[in-house]
Each structure stands twice: as C-alpha cells, then as structure tokens.
Design brief:
Elements (H helix, E strand, L loop, with lengths): L10 E8 L5 H10 L14 E2 L8 E2 H7 L10 H14 L3 E5 L2 H12 L5 E4 L14 E4 L14 H10 L5 E4 L10 H13 L4 E4 L3 H11 L8 H10 L3 E5 L10 E5 L2 H14 L10 H14 L2 H20 L4 E4 L2 E5 H4 L7 H13 L1 E2 L11 E5 L7 H16 L8 E4 L8 E3 L15 E8 L5 H10 L14 E2 L9 E2 H9 L8 H14 L3 E5 L2 H12 L5 E4 L4 H9 L3 E4 L20 H11 L7 E4 L12 H14 L3 E4 L3 H11 L8 H10 L3 E5 L10 E5 L3 H14 L10 H14 L2 H20 L12 E5 H4 L9 H13 L1 E2 L1 E3 L1 H4 L14 E5 L7 H16 L7 E5 L5 H4 L1 E4 L18
Parallel strand pairs: 1-19, 2-13, 3-17, 5-6, 7-8, 8-9, 18-28, 21-22, 23-24, 24-25
Antiparallel strand pairs: 1-17, 4-10, 9-10, 11-12, 12-14, 15-16, 20-26, 25-26, 27-30, 29-30, 31-32
The chain binds pyridoxal-5'-phosphate.
Amino acid sequence: MTTPVPAHEPHKAKTVRPIRFVSLDERKRNLTAAHFNVFNLTPQQISFDMVSYGAGAMSQEQLAGQLIGDEAYAGARNFENMSGAITRVLGHTYVCPTHNTLGSVKLLLHAFASSGQRLPSNARGRIDLHAPRGIELVDVRDHAEAVFTGNFDLAALEAAIGASRPPFVGAQAFADGQHPISLGNLRAARALADRHGLRLVLDVSRVVENAWYIQRFEPGMADRSIAELVKLTAKSAHVIMMDGAQDARANTGGFLATDNPADHERFINDIVVFEGLHTYGGMAGRTMEVIARGLDEMCDESTVQWAMAQTERFTARLREAGVPIERGCDGAYVQADRFLPQATQHPAHALACALYLSAGVRALVPGLVGRDHLLPLQIPRLAMSNRQLDQVADAVIALHAQRERIPALTLEMDGQWHDALRFGSVLADLAPFAFDCEPWLVHTLEPIAITTREQRERAIREAGWNTFLLRSADVTIDLLTDSGTTAMSSVQWAAYDAAVPTPATSSAYLEFAAAIRDTYGYQYVLPTHQGRAAEQILSEVMIRPGQIVPGNMYFTTTKVHQEYAGGVFADVIVDEAHDPTSTFRWKGNIDLAKLDALVREHGAAQIAYISFELSVNMAGGQPVSMDNLREVYAWSRQHGIAVMFDATRAVENAYLIQKHDLRYRSTHVKDILREIMLYGDGATVSGKKDYLINIGGLLTFKDNAAWAHAAEAKLRIYEGGVRDGGLPAADLAAMAQGVREMVDDRYIRARVEQAVRLAGWLKDAGVPVVEPTGSHAVFVDARRFLPHVDQDEYPAQRLAGEIYVETGVRPMERGNVSKGRDRDGNNYRPALELVRLTLSRRVYSDDHLRAVADGIIRLWQRRNQISGLRFVYEPRDLRFFQGRFEPLPAASVAQPAGVAATGQR
Ligand SMILES: *Cc1c(COP(=O)(O)O)cnc(C)c1O
C-alpha cells in the first residue's frame, strides 16, 4: 500500500533563511553588472534561487551533526558513522569517501578506464566528466519508453558492449534529473553486465526520487517502502556513487561504495593522490556526519511523499497553464526554445534573464554549451512552502503570457561552459511579478509527530483532557502559544554564535541598545530575562501602594505585578472588547471617558500610570488605533500621568494600523511603530513574542533618568547585570537582530495574514470565531460551537481536547477553566468561552493551517455528538495548568445542533 500524500509538511521550520525581495531597479542593475548571465548573481540579489544542489533544508539533527565533526586526519569517528549509515541504508559494505561526485568519477575512471574507451550509459550528463579524459559516452537509453524514461535499451547496451569492450556500464538513478529507471530494467542491466564480466556502476545521488517512481509506477512495487526500494536499487549495482549535496541534503561531499573488497582497494590506493585519505576523502569530518544523518533520514516515507507531491504540484501548475516543460525529479525543466521561439541563440539564457528581471527568480543554465535548451527550475529540497512554489510557478506563467516582449541576447563572450558566457541586451520592458508570501525559506527543519487517531485518544486520556499536559512528542501542530516558539533566522544564529560572553558590557548589549533606540526612539535600555521580570521592576518603581493602575484589559502577569506592588488595577478598555461578536476595528482602545471618571473620583495623583497594552492579548490580539494613542497621550500630559506600554505585540499593532488606517497604508511598519512609541514614556516587552527569539525581555524608558536609575538598581538584584538582565551575550545578540527583522513589512504581514486566512477558512464553513481576527491567534467561540454544553461542563476545554484528537493540533482553553472560581466556589462563567489557536512565528506553512481548519470543520459537522467534561482533579490556583478532566456521558448531548445556548443556570 502506497503511503497517502501528506496534507502538510511532516516537519516544521526550526531555523529560517530570510529572503530579500530586490526592487526592479536593483534587478536591472544587477543583471547588467552580471553580463546578462544569471550565474553571476549572488543569492542576496535573488528572491527565489531555483536550484536543488546543496541548497535544501537540513534537519536539526544534521545541523547538530555539523557541530560534532571529528576533524581527525585519520580514522575519524564521523567516517565510521557515515560508513555505518551507507551500509544500513544502501547495503554496500566498503566505502571510499570523496569530496563530491567529481571526486568519485576521478577515482572510478582512474581505476577502471583508459583513454579512448567508450562508456555506455543511460545518462548523457549535462556536465561531461568523461570527455576531457578521452572517454566517450554512448547513449543506450530507451527513448521509446514512456514512464521509466531512464531505462536501458537492453539490445543497444548489448550491442555497445559487443562493439567496444567498455570499462564498465554506467547508470544513473533518475538520469540527468529527468529520467527514472525501473528496478526491473536496472536488474536486467546488471545481469547483462554480469554476463559480460563488467561492473554496473550506479549513481545513486537521486535514488530516493527514483524509488518513489518505482513505488508508484512499477507493477508489483506499490507495497514496498521507499527504504526497501532504495536498498534494492543500490544493491543492484556492483559499485554505487553518491553526491552528498543531493538526497542526503548535505552541502557537499560524496562517496563510492561497493561490496567488492578488491575494487575498494583500488579506489583507496588512488584516493591519497586525488582526494585525501581513505577515512575522509577530501571532506571535512562534519560533512561526513551530516551525510550520515541525511542518509538515515532520506528514506522517511512521509518526507519523500511530501517532497515528490510538491514537485508534481509545481510541474502540474506550469503544464496546465501551457508553459512548455519537461518533468524533472526535482522540479520543472522549461523548454526554452519552445518558450522563446524568437530567441534563436541561447534561448535558455534569454529566458533566465527575463525571469530574473520580472520576478527576481533565478533558474540556472547548467553545464556545457550546446547540449539542449532546457532551463531547470529545481525545488531546493524541503526549503519552500507550497504557497511560495505556487507563486514562483505563477511568475513563470505571467512571463509566458508576455513572452513576445522578451528580447534576444547578443553574445559578447563565447565559451564551452554556460557559466563563462557573457551577453549584451536591452533591458526588457516586462510587467513585474509581485510576490505575496512568507519572506523566508526553511533553513533547518524539525520533524513533527505523525500520529494515529488511536494514539491521540490514548494521549488525551492520559493527559486528563488538558492540552497543557500533552507531551510535545504526541503533538503534530502545536498552537498552544506563540511565546518563545519562534523559528530564529540563520542571521540571528550567526549573531548568537559570534557573541563574546562577558559579565560586563558586551557588544551584543550595545547592538541591542542601538536597535531599541533606533526602533523606539527610547533612551534607556534594560534587558530582562522575560517580560514578567520587566513588569515586576516597572511596577515596583512606578506604583505607590494604594494607587490605581488603569489599563486596557489586563494581562495575567502584568496585573499580578501591579497588585504585588500595591496597585489596584482598573479596566478602562472600550466596551466592545468584551463582546466576541462585535466587529469594531479597534477593540484595544482605551475609553477616555472611563479614564476621566477615574481622575474625577480619585484625583490624578492617585493614578500610578496608564498601563497601555498594544494588540491586546486577552482580547484576542486586538489593536489600538493611532488616534486613540494620540488622544490618550495628550490626556495624560494634561493630567501629569505617565503612559507605560506593554509593547510585547507592538509590531503586530503597527501592522494592523498600516492595514486598516488608510492614512498609514503606505507608511512602513517601522515608521508606524516609531510614531506609536512617541505617545508613551516607557515600555515593558516580552521578547518571546515580537522579537523573534526564544527567551528575553526588555524594560525601556523614553527619557526619565530617575526611573531608569531606580529600575537599574532592581535589575541588579532580581535579574542579573545592568547590561544583560541575566541574559547571555548570545541571546542579546540574537534579540538585537530579531528587533531588526521584526519590522520587516513583508514578515509581519505574512504573520498576521496567516491568522486572517485561517480564520477565513473556518468562517467560510460556518465555524464561529471571534471577530475581527486578531494579530497572533484565531479564537473559536466554544459557546456557539457547543451550545448544548453548559458552561460548567467546560465546552472550550472539551473542544480543545476534541480538536487535538481529531487533528493532532494542540490548542489552549481560554474560558471558564482559565478564569477559575469566585470566593463562594462558583465558576466565574466569563463572557468569553474560547479555544485559542496561536500561531508561532515563521514555523508553520499554510498547508499546516489548512489541515488545522479542515479538522475543525469536520468536528463542526458532528458537533452535536460532543459532550462536556467534569473535573477529576482541580488545583486551587491557576487550575488550567494542572487540572484533569473526564468526559461526561454522551447521553447529555441528545439535543440537535443549532439549539440556543442553555444560558445561565
Ligand atoms: C507574554 C506576555 C507577557 C509576559 O511575558 P513573559 O515573557 O511570558 O514573561 C506580558 N504581556 C503580554 C501582552 C504578553 O503576551
């Protein structure tokens, strides 16, 4: 049975690689400077670099392996690990490491071939490794075969062997990246080689893609796993060679392997001449470790199914739009001569230039001049989302629609290899393609749990129907919280790595302080380990016991610290914030009339400060308008009261102003944020949210030195050094870079719009969600979802558990359980009985979220079968963390769906 195509990636992003979107003007300049040969462009000049070789995403295990390279000259442990993996996965015992495929070919030819020989092969090789050594390739591919186009024409092979005794028979799994070979044909070629006393040498660099074709299209193979087929394929040959930068997802490296000790002996005798030593072969130890782990991972069934489904989707989209392409194992190979019949010379280069100019996408023209006119658009393995791939396809389709406007190139410098050519041209007048997708690629990935319903039913029972008590290992898509769950960027990691630790002033601190001053315009920068630590210090510095602290709804930790410092919290948020059905746009606003009333009652001196949260978390990520910010600040000036922001989600708020306030439509988020911060005197921040890091926080003041010095005194006692707040320099450095990345317009738009899309899919199916959609989460209204479940039977808690069982998605309850009981022991029964689906930053794709929506929609369709819960263990404080429940009997759910809420008892 073939594994079904997964609905989403079987992994999530662990680290991301930021994408630059270069302007049309820049692209024109870059292309001219590159002599109209896109080979000369660097990735920093490109939005999507459509190459698969060495450009894929590593797993976090591979990345970890990269850091434990045993760089011994002889007998490295990494070599032993790699050899073990090769034997386990590919079945061959004797391994000869090389620096890449070119190294392997060097050794092979030196061991077996001599000049003037002819080598029959099913591959032509875009890069001809053989001709320079005087060896001619003989094409013995079966050109009549429709599916396994890489199959040998066995009669032609027999004839070629008979005509001139070749050194060996060459074969490639997925020959030239385009032609899969069947297992049956490969075995027949092996038998033929055996009859003639020749070796069959197989290039297995793309063995996984080839195994997928065998599984799918070769009769009798559908029940075999990818792992089995990979091994059977590799075992069909006498000698295999592999490039580490293909299926094993390393960035370089390779090897030859065989079961014949005599052949191995010959390879390793030559290795010291050409490559290195027989236990490293011209590779760093870390590369061998990365390859070892990549080999163990590359046959993972759902990963292979996902990657191949991406390729199918990409090629289908292009083909259906009429773009002339050939199928590749790793993407679509555009037939440039059919795309651009007007370009008689070098159509692939002309097309590559036009694609870069119109969309910033690079497709590379590889190898030797004069072989064909194909322009490969390869997918970097596991690095791109379907949303991105669809848009790259759309960019090609848009170019196809205006192909008459693509000018021909004039050759200015000729050469044998495509990378050496130079051209002159006029800059085409093409309509540019605008991307609207996440501005990052997956750099490293983390596998996610793929579970069965049975496993999940057991897991939720064991967790007492409390999603906080689930093990991460049982969770497929984790939407519990966005706190500290960010995927850091490779740039942040580089800064993390480069930071020099010190208990005194680090340059990381200075970078961070500079980034905050630049972003907020605030003078005093006090790092803390988290937001709540900043809240504690701020509260102690600013609040005299008995003073009132007005705020726009409360946040749990903020309110606790205000109360610990002797303050009395007063909610002054607009009434609409408490109504889940109100569609008011600025539900985070402060109601000035409520503030006025407080001052009239208590006097301005009794107000400690205004606690002003941006993009109010507890209201569902609801924004404050710029007008409200301005008005509240003007009011506070009049009364001599300070405004202190909770700026944890200030960037999300700034984006919502850009989106919904017409006056700010063309203002950068960074400038909107800077204006927001004008209307306050200081801020606390949980860096675990906006700052794109996993730990960290901030207390900052605009210009009041007295407050800053009082806060510093407390920082030393509670947190750490005055310039680190208990954070290592490395985390400060990552945070400084995160502060720069967070105000990127494309990034924050991608983040917030993902929530909007998720909410839209749910709403379209009738699922009740809180409106308007907030900035960081989608809230499902459990009261309207399960109207037949009384609030004291905890509908949101039950719904959260059911969502987990149905989908493997972990949400969080925000309702009666979270709110707790009053003094008389009765549940508070709050107006909001919600299930929160919180989106981590840069971690999940649209396909993950589409699967979330589909699962919840299935539940919605059978909602009347869902009953409530009762406590079996109820802690006194913060019971939502540790409480345990059991489902009530299904008898209490006899009512049909759609019945009005049972209401208050
Ligand atoms: C998370 C959060 C906090 C608390 O920050 P921690 O870093 O978890 O201590 C404070 N305010 C808001 C709005 C938050 O979202």
